Every structure is written in C-alpha cells, then in structure tokens.
Amino acid sequence: MGILLGIFTLLTGVGVFIAGMNMMGEGLEKSAGGGLKRLLAKISNNRFAGVGIGATVTGIIQSSSATSVMVIGLVNAGVMTLFQATSIIMGANIGTTVTGLIVALSGTESSGIGFSEIAMLFAFIGIMMTFFKNEKVKRVGGILGGLGLVFVGLDIMGGSLKGNPELNGFFTGLFEKIHFPLLLIILGALFTALIQSSSAATGIVITMAGAGVIPVDLALYIVLGSNIGTCVTALIACIGASANSKRTAFVHFTFNTLGTIIFAAFLWPTGAWFSNLLSTLFGAENYELQIAMFHVIFNVTTTLVLVPFIKQLVDLATFVIKDKKSDTENRHLKFVDERLLKTPAIAVMQVKKEVEYMASLAKENLERAFDEMQNKDGKHKAELYEVEGTINFTNNAMTKYLIQLSPLLDSGDEQMVGSYFHVLNDLERIGDHAENFFEIASQMGEEKLSFSEMAFGEIMDMYRKVNRMFEIAIDAFDNVSAEHLKELTALENEVDALKKKLSSQHFTRLATGACKVEQSAYFFSTVAGLERVADHLINIGYSILTPTGDQKYAKI
C-alpha cells in the first residue's frame, strides 16, 4: 500500500468518524431535546450551575463548537447574558472530553475481541433501526448507528496507519521534524480549525498515538492547540451578530488560549516527568487513555483556575469590543437567532418565547387602541404604530425562520411548529384590528364625534370579554393546558351573541334619536372587529390541540 493510497484510506476513516459523531450527536440531541430545554430554562448567574449546564449539553450533543454557536445565538437573541454564556462555554470544554474517552475505548480488549469490533456492530443495528417508523426507535438507532460509525472510522484510521509502514514512517518522520511545542500547538489549532471540531481532532490524535505514529509527549501539545482551533467556529458564527455575541466568541477564544498558555508553560519544562506520570496512572502501553485523560485534566483544571475570573473576562471582552449604535437601532427578533438552527430542540423553545412576546405586543396595542377610544388624546399614536411595525416584522421574520426550522424537526416538534404558523398569522391579524380600532377613535376625534354613554358601555363590555379571552388563550398556549378552553369557548359564544344584540340595540337607539347616524359606521366596525379578534383568540387557544386552532376538530 503506497503513501497516497494510505492517505486516502486515512481520510476515509476521518470522514466516517466525523459522520458517526454527527449522527450520534443528532440522535442524542433529539432524544434529550426536552432535557436540553429544561436545562437551559434553569440558566442563572450561578457560575458553577452554568459550568454544569455547559458540560451536560456538550456531553449530549458531542460538540463544544455547536454549544458555543448555540450560546452565541442565545446571547444575540438577548436571552442569555455574557456572564452566563461564559460559564456555559467553560463547561462546554469539559463536556467535549467525552468523545476522547469514547475513542480511548477502541483500544480496550475483552476476551481477545476489541471493544471496537463489538461496537462496530452498532453501525448495522442502528442504521437498520432508523428505517422504523417509530420516532423513539429511529432516535435510538441514530445513536447506536453513529456510535458504530465512530468506531468504524477509528478502525479504518488505525488500519491505514498500522498496516502501511510507508505512511507510518512518513508521519513519524514528520513529527520528529516538528517536535517543537509551539509548532505542535499551531498544528493542532490549524487542523482543528480546518475540520471545525476539537472532539474529532482529539480523536484522530488519540488514534495516531495508538498506532505509534506520534509520541504521547508530542500529542499533548497538539491536543492543547485543538482547544484554540475549536474557537474558529464560534468566531465565524459571530460575524454580523451583536456586540455581546462577538464578546462571547472573544471570551471563548481568550479562555481557551489562556488555558493553553498555562498548560504549555507547565508541560514545556516537565514534559518527560508528566508523560511518565500519565503512563503510571493510566497504563504504560495504553497511549489512547493517557491522551484522553490528559484532555480531561486540561479542561477541568483550566475551568477550575479561571471560573473565579469570569467577571474579569467579561469586563475585558466589553473593553475590547465596543457597543455599536446599530445594535440597538435595527429591528430584530427578541428571542430567536439563526445560529440556534444548529440545535433544533432549543430553537423550538425560543420560537415559543418569540410567539408569546408577539402576543404581548398585540395585547398591549389592543389596550392602547381602547384607551384612545375612551380619551381621544392621541398620546399612544407613535408607540402603537411602532409596535404594529414590530408585530408585522416579527410575523414575516418568524415565518421565514419556521420554514428553515421545520425540515430539521422530528414529527412531534414538527406538528407543534406547524401550529405556530397559524398562531403568528392570528396575532398579526389581531394587531391589524388594534390599529383599525385606534384609527376609528382618531377619526371620531377629528370629526368631534362620540358614542353615546350606552353605546360606549356596550362596546367596553364586549372588549372586556375579549380581553379575558386573550388572557385565557395565551395562558393555554404558554402552558399547553386545555384547562380553561371551555371558558374560552363560552366567552366566544357570548361575544358572538353580543355582536347581534348590540347591532339590534343600536338600530333601536337610531330610531329613537339616542344615537346619531354618523356614529353608526364606527360602531358597527368596532363591534365586528371585536368579534373577529375573538375568532382569532379561539384559534390561538385551540392551537395546542389542533394545528389550525379550529375548535371543531379539537377534543378537550
């Protein structure tokens, strides 16, 4: 086998290994989607809790780069502070060591049969399971299949090195020439930046050490460099993001660089002694476990050393990266960011928050409109139109976002997101009605017209019922609870009945002269508009039971 063919085989193994990691991580993420949501819901300013969350999330999705990008998305959406993000990124560095430990198992023997030979069966079993229709079976299949492919990739890589003396000699000679620590750190950083995964880079280094291509003492420096190279993904992700998002990427880079400098300064003069210590602790011939455990020791120690200085890291990032006016002037989504598409389970959680925020804007505008109807002072005009613009922007931006998100979801989340399309449309229409009510009040003010005391009292009674419907509908949507949907339906029936009743009573008042003809168009438009708002609120409330929100097809 020549060097060229050996390199092709090695690259094939790398590709299978990375594909397996991605497949396993995706399966784990889908299986633990609810757990990820609950974890991120517990985000606080407790730095140790943040480290724990970061380690757990990364351990699940098997990628510190993906966690960093997700955190940048949450910071950019204003959901997470820079302080909270820093502690989570520190934890992510610990979580990413899980891959190295899995790779180290490839050298474990049991009754003459390698663990990797047993695990490779998972590739076949898991992939067969992905053909089942049951979502849970498919997820488990994805995890098993991914794990199996990881070991298939490791076996291909190891075989290409061990079974090819020419290739083995080529790499051995190469590392003898670049044994200088700084060069090895740079090599690790560049290689990791190229494949955008420190977990994969570490796994490859562990495999090469196991094949005898690279000595453990040199491999340690490459592992250190990989922790700098993994920051490239986060640095790319923050392009075009807010100042805080850029600060998050800066903190990630600074933290990993400081950790590398600290450990390199320790390793350089004590390299032989430290290598002997690893050999004593984890087995003289078990090079894979030595490197995997070094990766754990490095990340845990770096986090313990730097976690007390989170505030100082945040202050440094704030000093280096200044705020820009455009960060506050541009209209943008409050809780959602495109970077979160890499973690669909978290994206769904944030979409729900964005929809609830849009609902609060629509409700506030409805209140502003009826305040104007009562006082006709125009004090809410600028604010109402600004909020209406935000509602329209949110509807359009969220619709595009959901189109991108939908193909990434499993059937359960996909059905839920399908209902969000309809809820967004209903909220946008409620916002339009609020604007119409405000314009009715403004026009009546300009024409110096007022509803009679009785007519205005009827309208406000109808509005109060609609306002109560708003509270119930949003509570049902927020808590996914059908507890008060019967009350919502009863109120909607009352509003329908009121529309007919108020129209009839208004005609009676016109006949008696209690109301003027000039007021009639405004009165009927207001009553009809409130009835339509009630219809939209029914759709929102019942969206938890049926995607379209149609109560005819929903069972309470």
Strand count, sense and closure of the main sheet?
A: 2 strands, antiparallel
Multimeric status of the protein: single chain
Helix content: over 70%
Number of helices: 24
CA radius of gyration: 30 Å
From N to C, what is the helix and strand string? Answer: HHHHHHEEHHHHHHHHHHHHHHHHHH
Would you tell me the structural class of the helices and strands? mainly alpha
Order of neighbouring strands in the sheet with most strands: 1-2
State which percent range the strand residues make up: under 5%
The residue-averaged pLDDT reads: 83
Shape: elongated
Cα-to-Cα separation, first versus last residue? 69 Å
Number of strands: 2
In short:
With 556 residues, this protein is mainly α. 79% of the residues lie in helices and 1% in strands. The protein has 24 helices and two strands.
Notable traits:
single chain; 556 residues; Methane Monooxygenase Hydroxylase, Chain G, domain 1; 24 helices
Structure explained in plain terms:
- Helix content is 79%, strand content 1%.
- With 556 residues, the chain is mainly alpha-helical.
- The chain folds into 2 domains: 3-162 and 169-320, no CATH class; 338-553, Phosphate transport system protein phou homolog 2, domain 2 (Methane Monooxygenase Hydroxylase, Chain G, domain 1), CATH 1.20.58.
- A two-stranded antiparallel ribbon has the order 1-2.
- A hairpin with a 2-residue loop joins strand 1 (109-110) and strand 2 (113-114).
- It is elongated, with a radius of gyration of 30 Å.
